Amino acid sequence: MNVLNALKSILFYPMMWLRGVFLLVGKILQGFFLLGLILVLFIAQGQEYFWTLVLMFAGGSFTFFLLTHFYDQILLRLNPTGKDLILVQ
């Protein structure tokens, strides 16, 4: 086992262990930001801070979407076993 495989294993197994929690928290936060965006669109129309809130909530939701998506991509690239890995969401 070479050094690169050892480093991959050190990163991969804790990340795989925390995957369920990370995806659950990420999806919940993504949903809260999306719900906040919908509420802002209906409640804060005409306010001076309207576009700031819209961009903040839309950006937050999209950021958590990207984090949950790329977390799985990182796991697939770090896979030290050499076998095909299928990650079901």
Description:
This protein is mainly alpha-helical. Helices cover about 80% and strands about 0% of the residues. It has one domain. It is built from three helices and no strands. The protein is elongated, with a radius of gyration of 18 Å. The two termini are about 30 Å apart. Keywords: Membrane, Transmembrane, Transmembrane helix.
The total count of helices amounts to: 3
What share of residues is helical? over 70%
Spans of 5+ residues with little confidence (pLDDT < 50)?
Answer: none
Order of helices and strands: HHH
The oligomeric status of these chains comes to: single chain
Keywords: Membrane, Transmembrane, Transmembrane helix
Transmembrane segments: 21-43, 49-71
Structural descriptors:
single chain, 89 residues, mainly alpha, transmembrane, transmembrane helix, membrane
Summed up, what is this model?
With about 90 residues, the protein is mainly alpha-helical. It contains three helices and no strands.
Per-chain topology:
Blueprint (H helix, E strand, L loop, with lengths): L2 H15 L1 H25 L6 H29 L11
